[in-house]
Design goal:
By secondary structure, the protein is mainly alpha-helical. Helices cover about 65% and strands about 5% of the residues. It is globular and about 40 Å long. The protein starts with a helix and ends with a helix. The longest helix has 21 residues.
Length: about 160
């Protein structure tokens, strides 16, 4: 799956489920943290297939978060995740633009730093980003659920 298709699909999925309208950046960043934990868990278990899917989930959350914010990740490039991003983000680091992130201050460089670290991990592990996106998209594309108070989307299977 291309990055352009992934971004389009994820944003439409998030719109259809009310995430972009009824949730907020802070809630989605917290969800991002849980997904990063799942990546670490699968990495430690050595489960490469599930690791790739969880990386795709992180990429989906980065896409949603960047849409909800003034993130440099959203503004720097189209598509959101391009090969030039490491080069561009490195330029930002060298120029001293990146500042300490804060959930409450909607730091525009926070998501960029997250993606930069993830991309470096993908390269070091020889993992294809587009494969991760495809796996994650196939996992969530038909997922249904309910938006609850606080802007959290609960998967249908977790509502039972």
């Amino acid at each position: 799956m291309t990055t352009v298709d992934f971004k389009k699909n994820v944003l439409q999925w998030a719109t259809d489920r009310g995430i972009l309208e009824h949730s907020n950046y802070q809630t989605q960043v917290l969800k991002l943290f849980t997904e990063v934990g799942e990546v670490v868990d699968e990495y430690l278990k050595g489960n490469v297939d599930k690791l790739k899917m969880e990386i795709g989930d992180v990429l989906a959350l980065l896409t949603i978060c960047s849409e909800m914010s003034d993130s440099v990740l959203k503004v720097l490039l189209e598509p959101v995740f391009g090969n030039e991003l490491i080069h561009k983000s490195s330029q930002y680091y060298l120029n001293g633009v990146c500042v300490t992130s804060s959930l409450s201050h909607n730091d525009p460089y926070f998501l960029l730093r997250c993606y930069d670290k993830l991309k470096l991990f993908l390269i070091s592990e020889g993992i294809d980003q587009e494969e991760c996106m495809e796996l994650a998209w196939n996992k969530i594309k038909n997922r249904e659920g309910k938006m609850v108070e606080g802007g959290v989307f609960i998967k249908e299977e977790d509502l039972k």
